[in-house]
Amino acid sequence: MSMPPSPPGAERTDGSSVRIGALVPLTRPGWVEAGRHLLAGLELAVREVNDAGGIVGRPIELVVRDTAADPRRAAAAVDELARLGVAALAGEYHSVVARAAAARADALGLPFLCSSAVLDALTEQPTEWVARLAPAQSRGWQIYADFLHGAGHSRIAVAAEPSVYWASGARILRDCLAPRGGTVIELDTRALAPTTLCDEVVDQGATALLLLVGHPEPAVSIVKSVRRDQRLAGIMMGAPAGQPEFAEWATLLGGDGTAIPFLRYLPERLSPLGARVETVLRERLAEAPSFVAFEGYDTVAVLADVLRSRGADRARIAESWPRVAVEGTRGQIQFSRIPGISVWQWAWTPIQVVDRDPADPDRFRILHTG
Question: What Cα–Cα distance (Å) separates residue 107 from each residue in 43, 62, 124, 353?
Fold first, then answer.
């Protein structure tokens, strides 16, 4: 597997760079657009750290590996990066892939700061080696359930693909809504074509349909079928995992992709640092940066701070998670132990429920905050 060129400002010049392994989905079936945004944030932060003198005079070198949404490929990449002598791992977007990477990192004693994956059980047992910036799924999806309840939805159909991540999300929604009289009806997209799925939603009397499926397919086909079905003209579609966040969604669906609420991990107002980073990321990406790009930037900001204060020794890096206090693009980042979560967790990044505005698909409307 070849290594992509190092980002600007991160070239290895004298063999003394501090190497950070970056796990990113850059090819299908991975969510390539999310991977591109994550990598842009990682690279920008590396460039800024190096332009400011690096880690006590040593540049950071980002060693990128494409996970392609494949857990086995990610685990192999962790093994390779450990052999290459990286001080720590960063990144990953897909929860199931991040779980495989976290298991290997824990087994090898390699610090891993997970940028964007939300699955609560990122490792089977509590670990000191792994920390996470993204909010746990139980936190974000509970806020989404609060939004559904507040909007008056009590019969919710869930179009789901088989996955630990999707199953976990459906369970969180059910657990949050059942005590308030809500019902979650699961529909298996493997067994139902989009048009048949619409029939089931009508038969079940659901007022909301949540897309717990991959992007672009089958999500795009389901949205188009629902929008064409006059029986479902009044239904709310939702995508808690964030499929509508990226520009490709708007490109593929246009107006059909609007008014579909999803979770986004941004504050209502960015800090001066966040606003500056947003401007630079917008130039690098030639489009508005997603929250995933900010997660990438914040990951390197944390690791750079730890490396400056603790050095590149892996054990010392892992020991530093509870001591982190870094101003990130979306607030002050500190890690703690949260009941039921096996890794060091930032509790909590800001969480919003937003959608694309039907009057302007490039504009996001904040519908709910948690």
Answer: 27, 22, 12, 36
